[in-house]
């Protein structure tokens, strides 16, 4: 047994809310923990906030106090909170410090610059365009100063190489199939009553009302769907985001009013649930007749795997990264810029006329994406990085011990 067989790993994420990067950090942490490693998850949080999902790992919350002005002020505050708690926790004692986003990446970049840590790993889920100079700088620094850059899809690995000259490595997401299986039916009637969900069909979209999620185009498609099936309801779940989507939300609500589609939190054609308890999400998928993910930009799209693991057909944008791991046997593709095409795809999926193969192709797809496989891939990358970065006289980890 080598001296570093049990790695001390710090995983940093930007909030305690149910977003893709936070899920990735928690589930990766769980898988690494189950493989015998000592994992601590760090996340900024306001007073009274807690991590949305329980974890077997130690979770350290970096308390964020006081008000801020704008997104840049909020980001700066969270970077500072993570820096303080990492210094308090003696960040240098971790073998691996791994940030899932720009907030954690900048906290680690500043500690690296001061010599408080040797280096860090950064996962790029996707990149955004920011007009604010500070936000653009922070986004760039978070991957530019990292010692290893990972991406959750080949699409973004290629983008990092082609656009920024970064040699990134791909480490895919996973899915907890048991969590979204048949046992998730238990809470469906409670949720139907709570949100006033009728006979349907029900179209579910997860991620709130955001430009990146293409929610306004989904609204246009849903209006066409209602002409075909007047009892149809659009369920918009989640949406706990640190970014400012107020202008897009106002435009969405204005357009819904013109389409004569009432938007509310119960019994309306368009139901906005807001953030839900994590335990309710599997049942919410089981309520849907079809799940829509017609995003304009995604890092991977965890909702796709969650929907399929729930036995629900999914309509997705015919764009990368979806085209990287999906085909016509596992989803219904559509043009995310064409409302009529989206509506037709939703109808096809609801009617059972799609070619999605839940007997063979979907189970095969889900078997490809497990959190254990993701954790083992991470460990391989960690071990090679540690071997390269250790001082010549230091103890180096052996591949067989950490995996």
UniProtKB/TrEMBL annotation:
UniProt GO BP: lipopolysaccharide biosynthetic process
Gene3D superfamilies recorded: Glycogen Phosphorylase B
Source organism of this protein record: Caballeronia novacaledonica
Matching InterPro entries: Glyco_trans_1, Glyco_trans_4-like_N, GlycosylTfrase_MSMEG0565
Keyword Transferase: yes
Location of the Glycosyltransferase subfamily 4-like N-terminal domain: 19-179
Name recorded for this polypeptide: Glycosyl transferase, group 1
Keyword Signal among record annotations: no
One of the record's GO molecular function terms: glycosyltransferase activity
């Amino acid at each position: 047994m080598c001296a570093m067989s049990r790695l001390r790993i710090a995983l940093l994420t930007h909030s305690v809310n149910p977003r893709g990067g936070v899920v990735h950090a928690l589930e990766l942490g769980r898988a690494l923990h189950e493989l015998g490693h000592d994992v601590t998850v760090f996340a900024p949080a306001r007073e009274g906030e807690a991590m949305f999902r329980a974890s077997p790992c130690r979770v350290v919350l970096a308390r964020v106090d006081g008000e801020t002005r704008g997104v840049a002020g909020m980001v700066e505050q969270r970077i500072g909170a993570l820096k303080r708690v990492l210094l308090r926790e003696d960040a240098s004692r971790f073998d691996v410090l791994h940030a899932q986003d720009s907030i954690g990446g900048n906290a680690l970049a500043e500690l690296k610059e001061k010599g408080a840590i040797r280096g860090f790993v950064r996962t790029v889920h996707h990149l955004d365009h920011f007009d604010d100079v500070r936000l653009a700088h922070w986004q760039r620094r978070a991957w530019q100063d990292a010692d290893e850059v990972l991406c959750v899809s080949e699409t973004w690995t290629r983008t990092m190489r082609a656009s920024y000259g970064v040699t990134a490595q791909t480490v895919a997401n996973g899915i907890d199939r048991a969590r979204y299986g048949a046992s998730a039916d238990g809470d469906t009637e409670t949720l139907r009553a709570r949100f006033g969900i009728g006979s349907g069909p029900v179209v579910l979209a997860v991620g709130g009302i955001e430009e990146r999620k293409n929610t306004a185009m989904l609204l246009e498609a849903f209006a066409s769907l209602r002409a075909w099936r007047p009892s149809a309801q659009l369920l918009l779940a989640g949406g706990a985001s640190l970014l400012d989507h107020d202008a897009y939300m106002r435009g969405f609500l204005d357009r819904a009013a013109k389409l004569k589609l009432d938007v509310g939190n119960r019994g309306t054609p368009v139901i906005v649930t807001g953030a839900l308890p994590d335990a309710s999400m599997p049942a919410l998928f089981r309520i849907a007749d079809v799940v829509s993910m017609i995003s304009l930009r995604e890092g991977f799209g965890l909702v796709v795997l969650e929907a399929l693991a729930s036995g629900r057909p999914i309509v997705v944008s015919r764009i990368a990264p979806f085209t990287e791991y999906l085909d016509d046997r596992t989803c219904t593709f559509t043009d995310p810029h064409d409302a009529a095409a989206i509506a037709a795809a939703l109808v096809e999926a609801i009617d059972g006329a799609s070619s999605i193969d839940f007997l063979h192709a979907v189970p095969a797809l889900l078997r490809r994406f497990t959190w254990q496989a993701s954790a083992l891939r991470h460990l391989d990358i960690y071990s090679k990085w540690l071997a390269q970065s250790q001082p010549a006289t230091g103890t180096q980890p052996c591949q067989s011990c950490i995996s």
